[in-house]
Amino acid sequence: MHLFEGLDAILLAALLLLVVARKLNVPYPTLLAAAGIGFALLPFAPDIDLDPALAMALFIAPALLHAAYHTSLRGLRRFWFPLLSLAVFAVLVTTAAVTFVGVAVAGLPLAAAFALGAIVAPPDAAAAEAVLSEVGIPRRGLLLLQGESLLNDATALLLFGLAVALATNTDTAATPLVLAAAAPGGILFGLAAAWLYLRIVPLFSGTLGSSLADFAVTFAIWLLAERLHLSAVLAVVAFGLLVAQRRPLGQPARDRIQSRAVWSAGVLVLNVVAFMIMGLQSRDVLLRLDSAERLPAIVFSLIVLATVLGARLAWVLLVRAFEGLISRHHAPAWLPKPPPWRATLILGWSGMRGLVTLATAFALPAAMPGRDLIVLAAFTVVIGTLVVQGLTLGPLIRWLDIGEDAGLATKLGTARRRIIDAGVAVLAGDESDAARALRVRYGAAGAVAAHAEDPQAPSDFDTLHLKVVEHQRTALNEMRQNGDVAEDIYRRLLEELDWSEVEARSFSDNVLRSA
């Protein structure tokens, strides 16, 4: 009961933090990180011991699937070179730099320092997107962050698994061979699971089981891959990429809307719990350290933070210089046009760490040499990047004044015009009242879509539609208060009005920001 009370207090605090984050225009992970420290200092904060295997399955599997659903395969193919440099080589460079610092400064064993490097290497795009969606950067930058968020997690987690095996003397001679077989096996297992899932999931259409199946199957894939000694990371990544591409083709709209809401809430809860647990573990680490060891441990953690920040920024700028040099002398077709230096600087500064770093730190086995110091350094990196980069990224973007990307509005308006024309073409030859009403509806939307300078502006039709729905809802609420409608009828009609409002607002809300 004490644990449940603590978790409920965590969620209630998170609600307040979300309101504060919106008021202050601060990314919510930044406040969650600060709250993790504050929660750990409370006298009633519980002691939470998390099994390493449970931590990986509970936090990593949903995070990977969520990232896969937001990753564009077309974008991966188009920007394969910068993604390769960020998701693989930047992770390797950061891991190597932190490994050197861990051995040279803290005297950690090589394998333990390597594990620390793998833990803090992968940035989390969630915090960066929270800032960038409000301020705006080029769409290429957002695509890179989304693709990197998925692929760098896979790279870092594979390195982490190898480091843990080496540090804990787990059949070190066979580890490279096992890893070599586990990677392709995990991919094939994930693809096979996706093929089967896409044929079974229609059975749950229109029910709450549709969203529940996503979580249950994701956890099942992770656990089965672990039992089969395959790469659970790559299995979930492969599963998520294929399902994200194929499932929307036949998924009902109601299920899609419900799934987005459930996954957004689920990932938020996981982030909240992870930050609070890490705060508690860091508190316990500091309490276990002798007073003479605390200051050196904190200094080492800050050095690791500086190393992580500097390694990513240096690597991104180095790759940009290489791209510019190649494009000036040869400009091969396989190399995308390099971005402006200002956009590169923003990408290099968008390296906030988050849920994956926290979860892998939880997953460190108790037998890991220097575990306490590694956990403290990992939490410092998460806190430091979220505070330092999270609070400065927005002002940096505004100071650099990149300017808006007019291409997004043009492409958005063109695409919307095409799908409107395709829908109206079905009405050809139909002169019924319903067909004429639909032509008026989509004609108004098409007129808006034709203006690329504001492709999501509300039409007169949408504005009046919203006004009608508002008055309908008022009338429905009055009928309920007067006892004129039963509760089940009220809920059914209220849901219909909500869907009508969502449709009417589709051209006025959630405007995509670009710069």
Overview of this protein structure:
The longest helix has 39 residues. It is built from 20 helices and no strands. The radius of gyration is 25 Å and the shape is globular. 77% of the residues lie in helices and 0% in strands.
Q: Which stretches are poorly predicted, pLDDT < 50 over at least 5 residues?
A: 452-456, 508-515
Derived structural class: mainly alpha
Mean pLDDT reading: 78
Helix count from the secondary structure assignment: 20
Keywords:
single chain; 515 residues; mainly alpha; 77% helix; disordered C terminus
Helix/strand layout:
Elements: H1 2-24, H2 28-41, H3 52-69, H4 73-78, H5 80-104, H6 110-120, H7 125-135, H8 139-167, H9 175-200, H10 209-227, H11 232-246, H12 253-288, H13 291-329, H14 341-348, H15 355-362, H16 371-400, H17 406-425, H18 433-449, H19 460-481, H20 487-504
Summarize the structure.
The protein has 515 residues and is mainly alpha-helical.
